[in-house]
Please model this.
Amino acid sequence: MKNEVTAKIYRAAVVGGGFSGLTATALLSERFGGENVLLLERNDRVGERVLATGNGRCNLPNVVLSPGRYHSVLGADVGYALGKYGNKSLIDYFRALGILTAEEEGRIYPRSFQAGSVLDVLRAEVARRGAVTKTQTKVTEAVFREGVFRLRSDGGETFGADALLLAVGGKAGKAYGTDGSSYGLALGFGHSVTPLSPAIVQLKTESRFCKGLKGIRQKGKAYACDGEKRLSSAEGDILFTDYGVSGNAVFVLSSYLVGAERPSLEVDFLPEMQETEIVSFLKQKRRRFPEIPTEELLCGVVNKQIARMLAVNFATDKKREAETLARAAKRLVLPVTGTMGFDQAQVTRGGIPFSEFDPSTMESRRRRGLFFAGEVVDADGDCGGYNLQWAYSSARCAVDGISAFLGGGEGR
Ligand SMILES: Cc1cc2nc3c(=O)[nH]c(=O)nc-3n(C[C@H](O)[C@H](O)[C@H](O)COP(=O)(O)OP(=O)(O)OC[C@H]3O[C@@H](n4cnc5c(N)ncnc54)[C@H](O)[C@@H]3O)c2cc1C
Model:
């Protein structure tokens, strides 16, 4: 960056106006005065991705919170941040901003069930605290020179700040401004980035079984497997599509399949029944209705098209139809051939390794005064509110770290 004159040196600059950046900006403005805090966002407006969360309903935290719900490439030390600023802290913070919450199967949502209301209060808080917000400003360069972080935007504008928070998100969902290009800002300070993969994402499967089931949604239990080994299970919707499977249970399990050598999904369409119970039910049904074709034996038990698909593929020996149908309904193995990729994924596996920053302050170990928050680091949570939780918890730790770094709250 050339030796330009930077008009104003802010106390803190936040790059990225997503969930973590907005939270941090609001809190930093409260502490240092909004006129001393700068928020830079590349999109036309802040928080585009917040609006997309939870199918537009914004699944904030989850009632069950533990570090075990988080994944990484090199190890995510999320315990401190989640312990200090956990789900209760998040709920209380939003309550103080005017949002009540409601729970559905462990997932917490704004009581309005509208993601827009979460974004509205965050935006209002940032504005009320008077933070200087600039949209349509993509930061393309960041350096530290003469005791100041100096930023340059794609439009050629320059900015200066005593402390810098990179809250630029990851590589998932480029439609929301996160295309992976902003890891380069951290690389410039000597950081590294782990290999990246899409997580919480639809799965491509071998099409043999899914062909003809496009659009069918069935409740069930599924297991993420690597070869014969079951890695995790989830209950919920399984939606069949032209490329493979989607739905809540699939999203949850996709996070466990990243890096698997022989990934597959094992689907149990009748988790509430033992296989032997299904066999005796089907045998009874056969005795009562000797005329119905095998393809219809499971109709009324699972979705009709699924019943037919299972019969066509597995019940070829009429004498053993009850056993083979019951087995297939309890254990349909779908080999996974890939994912729908970063553009469709909800989060990124990988990022800046935890060894390169202090997880209690989120401060870089490469450059003092540089901080991180949210998805940009090597931590991704399960589907179910864990990622907004991490964005919040890490942002709060970063605000603590920045406050300690800058000392008092007075202006420069
Ligand atoms: C469809 C969808 C649904 C989801 N649903 C949920 C859910 O219900 N619950 C949950 O917990 N999680 C959910 N997630 C995940 C969650 O949205 C993210 O993990 C979380 O928003 C990450 O927050 P962040 O602040 O780290 O990054 P982001 O929210 O991605 O924000 C990063 C911001 O930085 C901006 N930016 C990037 N580079 C630059 C730059 N160089 N200069 C200026 N600005 C820049 C981007 O435009 C973006 O606005 C969902 C994700 C998607 C895509």
User: Anything to note?
Assistant: The chain is about 30% helix and 25% strand. The mean pLDDT is 95.
